[in-house]
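Amino acid chain
________________
===
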Amino acid sequence: RGAPGMDVEGFRQILLADCFGKAIKRATRNKLLPAAALYFGDMQFGELPGRGTDVPTLLIRLFLADAKARGISAAALFLDVVTAFYWVIRDLLVPLEESDHAICVLLARLQLTREDWFDLCRQFDSTPAMTAANVPGALAGQVAAALSCTSFAVPHLPELAQARAGTRPGDTMGGLLYGFLHSRVIKAVDARLQDAGLVSTLCTRGMGF
């Protein structure tokens, strides 16, 4: 990605799995779907079958049109999370046995402010997303194994490089795993909005959204 071929920092994670590995990942993903359907919010789209991103686009337009018709203030916040799949902190998704040094190296690369640093440390003390979603322990263990020791080779370098962040874009489970962490973030944001009294209800024909 726009970097010299020998620059390790310029890599993109590309999964080259054999057919057997892909079959296992597909089976694991299918077993995760019921838990995801219960854990993901009703308004969370793009990560489950049958929930296309065209629906929230229409809902936002309806929300803004309703506010305009009623003469009230309204706002829609659009966040463009750049290369989001690559920066997922896996320990927030599923319990992993990572060393303190590895976590500190990852946090240093994120270049967080002091306030964000302490907020993220509090997140490490909270329940991982898949645990909060009541994913069975054996199934969560399969996911943890898939996310552990992700490595890749660089030509002319004798040692393997390890990737300790991300949900492995291109992987059968990559999008769904990102959805679990996405849902955790959305739930936290929604709770803060509720506390601040900033959540609006859009009613159409007696149904609230």
